[in-house]
Amino acid sequence: MFDTLPKAETIWIKVTILHDWDDETCNKILRNCYNALPEEGKLLVVEILAPDHSNNREDLFENAVVFKFYVMLLNLHGKERTAKKYDELARAGGFVETKFFHIWDGLHIMEFLNKKTSN
């Protein structure tokens, strides 16, 4: 994923892959994914999204604190990201649309699309 990827219609990235890298490395990974996909292709990423500062729900705050400690203890280059930041990274990697699907307690599936959908 750091150099090239085989061609595919869909690529799946599991939890904490992008979370564990700095923005520059994430951009490289996302660009390589983009280059491996056809025009109708999509990248699916499962990650925990950091809450944005406009949301004061206590459970989201606790979730963010737990993952902040995870990042500090296990990976010096990783970081928490909000939905907005992941969308910015995806667009920098060439993707034109990002969709977010909440799964559970901060965990989301993000769908990065090469081509804008009609809906």
UniProtKB/TrEMBL annotation:
Superkingdom as given in the UniProt entry: Eukaryota
Protein's UniProt keywords contain S-adenosyl-L-methionine: yes
One biological process term in Gene Ontology: methylation
GO MF annotation list: O-methyltransferase activity
Domain O-methyltransferase C-terminal intervals: 1-95
Alphabetically ordered keywords of this record: Methyltransferase, S-adenosyl-L-methionine, Transferase
Keyword S-adenosyl-L-methionine: yes
Record protein name field: O-methyltransferase C-terminal domain-containing protein
